[in-house]
Write a structure and sequence with these properties.
Length: 129
C-alpha cells in the first residue's frame, strides 16, 4: 500500500512540474497585446429619408404596391454613404434611382466610445403610392 501512495505522490509531482513548464512563455516570446472590448457602440442612423418621385407615370403603374429594394452600404466617419450595392433588386431603373438618392442622404455615423467610425448597414425601400 505504501508503494501505491509513494508512486501516486511521485506521479503528481511530475504532472505539476510539467504543467508549470507548459504555461511558461517561450524564450524571446512577447506577451499578446490585450484586445479592448467596448460596450459603447452605437450603430449608424439615417437622418431623414427623402421621398423619391419617379417621373414616368407609366412606370409607377407597373410597380406593384409593396415592391421592395434592398441596399447595402457603408456609412463613413462623416456620415456619408459609400460602397452602395443593390442586394435585393426590383427593376434596374428604380434600383439606380434609389442608389442616387442614398448617395445624397445624410447619416449619423456609428460611434464606439463616442468616437465616429465607419460601419456597414442595410436599407430596405418599399413602394408606396
Amino acid at each position: 500500500m505504501s508503494r501505491i501512495i509513494a508512486a501516486s505522490l511521485v506521479l503528481s509531482m511530475l504532472t505539476l512540474s510539467t504543467a508549470a513548464k507548459a504555461s511558461a512563455p517561450a524564450d524571446g516570446a512577447t506577451n499578446p497585446t490585450p484586445v479592448r472590448v467596448s460596450s459603447g457602440a452605437v450603430p449608424p442612423a439615417l437622418l431623414g429619408a427623402p421621398v423619391l418621385y419617379l417621373p414616368d407615370s407609366t412606370l409607377i403603374d407597373l410597380l406593384p404596391e409593396g415592391a421592395q429594394v434592398g441596399l447595402s452600404l457603408t456609412v463613413n466617419k462623416k456620415g456619408q454613404a459609400e460602397n452602395i450595392r443593390v442586394i435585393k433588386t426590383f427593376d434596374p431603373f428604380v434600383d439606380n434611382r434609389l442608389v442616387e438618392a442614398v448617395n445624397q442622404m445624410h447619416f449619423r455615423p456609428a460611434t464606439i466610445d463616442g468616437q465616429p467610425t465607419a460601419a456597414d448597414m442595410n436599407l430596405e425601400f418599399t413602394v408606396a403610392r
